[in-house]
Give the backbone structure.
Amino acid sequence: MVHKRHIDDAIRNHFSRFRQALVLFGARQVGKTTLLKRIFPDALYLLVDEKPVRDVLETYSTSSYKHLIKNTKQIVIDEAHLIGEPGRAIKILYDQIEGVQIIVTGSSALHIKNKTGESLAGRSIVYHLYPLTFSEYLYQTGITDAIDDTILQKILKQDADIKPKLFDQDSALETILLYGSYPYTLNTVRDKVYLENLAEAAVFKDIVELNLIDNKAKAGELLKLLAYQTGNLISYAELGRKLSLHTQTVQRYIEIFEQSFLLHRLYPFSQNKRNEIGKMPKIYFWDLGLRNALIRNFDTLKLRADAGALFENFIINEVKKLIAYERQDYRVNFWRLKSGADVDLVLSTHNSIIGCEIKLDKGKPSRAFVNRYPKAKLHTITAQNFY
């Protein structure tokens, strides 16, 4: 299998541009270590889940670190969040050992940020790795080599044409909507057990290890409830009432889920015009296979009432991943009036607005949006024209 990710060039060229440590965040199993070993094959890999390595790193001693890395010029600290004080360790390496290029990975952004935010200020450049984009999925399954042909570019170019494909686009799309796009699933198509185990590990191992969730049973119920509400407006107060949790606890748990790369919130686009929803977010999951595992539903799209929500989630994910990889300055939102008129996706900068209606089959952009933002460009994204 040929591996290639959109972020490859940025990672490969990091040390030609920056002295700072390279910090690569991402959920477990998204391919962080695989990517780094491919790009930095000669680096010294320090696996923090191995106790001898962790013990040395937790000495926070310059001499111990020098003995550990010897004359190595490039080190990878894999799963750095397992160190008691990762920021302190990286700070010592960066400040006290000259000529060493430092690469750090972590599965839980919140855990690392809480412990290293101040220590790593000015000492690191952060990158994020997500589950595969559609282009990466196609490339790595050998369907096409057009990894630069992305959904985001299609939207920005306002290209709604349906071009002939040399692969079964419907089949590829359904596979991703049902089983997600973690790299492992390329080799084990339709592996429900893997996804269910991953969901269990992500929730009850990684997150609970943060020691920030005091009721893991309620946290699990909340995550499952959010999975059922994919693409819907969420009310923290309503979720709290359903689960007998304080509103502030619901918000805190969702923030932990978000910082752990399980899900993300999409906020409304508003220029404070009358009757526009301005606060309530929507919830989307970074991987749909993981989401479906949480609710234990892998039925085909034809049998699902949530097929449209899955496709919407997929498109939102694609856009957000690609904007992050390409370092674009577009803000990503949705738009909705209190009357119910809405636009699923709004990309905006200081001088442009693009509204996108996302429909599995077909649909038309909201005329209410056009009336309020006459200079906005409009695009309809369907399962037929998205790629």
In short: The mean pLDDT is 89. The first strand starts at residue 21 and ends at 25. Residues 8-128 form a domain with the Rossmann fold fold (CATH 3.40.50.300).
